[in-house]
Specification:
With about 300 residues, this protein is of the alpha/beta class. Helices cover about 50% and strands about 15% of the residues. The structure holds adenosine-5'-triphosphate (ATP) and magnesium ion.
Length: about 300
């Protein structure tokens, strides 16, 4: 192991002091008496689509805002290695990512940026190949770093890249829930179907949540859902639940221009209201009480599958 890697592992493993600092900044801190080193369940949700440009990053960012407003401590991970979209949409500048953690330059807590709306962001690691070639010791270091933050988190949202890249598949496999975003375009539907096919046939995923975006109305969104879920349930052995519809909304486009999530800049807009309704429903989902309900399951799987 190189010296810088060893330093990285040490830095990751000794991040407790900063975690305490992070806790102080967090409005909904865990009371001291319930704080413990023991793992606590965390909701882990991957947002995926197949086709690009259908609204994954908007869904991830606005659900992060809305879930934070419901009192959750949310971490949004930008897993799109190609483009740093989350930063741009939130109007924040980030300098560090998981690669800096591995290189020993920063701790995990130091790379988490504060987002307007009261949540944290882990910026995209632009060096995808670096993340895909971790040694077992580096894996262990990252897993340790994540297992130290689970006491400070309620929800982890992963904004994935377009397509069916290995990294997208591994993020989906490691998450408890996979939200598939579709729009009323043939390519969006067929690419989402192809993604579900790979995830179900090759990786045994059987349950998905569908979010219809840029719809004309709730009825339009439900019609897309019916069409899509019928085909999936007929040809693939999966269940697809209806998560909700987000309408096509000019206010959302304006918000993107202003680099501020629509849920914050136009909270009464049609899309913001839809995001809030969806977040309310997500908030009622049961967190699995088996091993998959823990952050460690996510982290172990993510790095295991990226290394295979
Ligand atoms: N509900 C909506 N109403 C109107 N326009 C929307 C809506 N959702 C997304 N858009 C438009 O679609 C564009 C792409 O959205 P977004 O970046 O969230 O998609 P993405 O799936 O993350 O894309 P990529 O695959 O490139 O990561 C936005 O810039 C915006 O113009
Ligand atoms: Mg995106």
């Amino acid at each position: 192991m190189h010296n810088d890697q060893a330093a990285g592992l040490r830095a990751m493993q000794s991040s407790t002091t900063e975690l305490e600092g992070m806790e102080e900044q967090t409005e909904q801190s865990i009371p001291a008496e319930t704080r413990s080193k023991n793992a606590k369940p965390v909701r882990v949700i991957a947002v995926a689509s197949g086709k690009g440009g259908v609204g994954k990053t908007n869904v991830s960012v606005n659900l992060s805002v809305a879930l934070s407003q419901l009192g959750n401590r949310v971490l949004l991970m930008d897993a799109d290695m190609g483009l740093a979209n989350v930063d741009i949409m939130l109007g924040i500048q980030t300098k560090y990512n998981l690669v800096h953690v591995l290189n020993g330059e920063k701790t995990l807590v130091e790379v988490m940026a504060d987002a307007p709306g009261g949540f944290k962001v882990i910026p995209a690691a632009s060096g995808d190949t670096r993340m895909a070639q971790l040694s077992p010791a580096e894996n262990a270091g990252i897993i340790n770093a994540f297992s130290e933050i689970d006491a400070f988190l309620d929800v982890l949202i992963i904004d994935t890249a377009a397509g069916i890249a290995d990294s997208v598949v591994s993020y989906c496999r490691a998450s408890q829930e996979v939200v598939i975003v579709v729009t009323d375009e043939p390519a969006s539907m067929t690419d989402a179907y192809a993604l579900i096919k790979v995830l179900s046939r090759e990786h045994d995923l059987t349950k998905f949540q569908l979010l219809a975006n840029m719809a004309r109305s709730e009825e339009h969104g439900k019609m897309l859902y019916d069409k899509f879920s019928n085909v999936c349930e007929k040809f693939l052995e999966v269940s697809v639940d209806y998560l909700g519809t987000v309408p096509f909304d000019h206010d959302l486009r304006e918000a993107i221009q202003k680099q501020s999530p629509v849920t914050l800049s136009k909270p009464n807009s049609a899309s913001a209201k839809a995001f809030k309704r969806i977040a309310n429903d997500i908030n009622k989902w049961a967190i699995p009480n088996d091993a998959t309900g823990y952050l460690q399951f996510f982290v172990e799987n993510i790095f295991r599958s990226q290394n295979n």
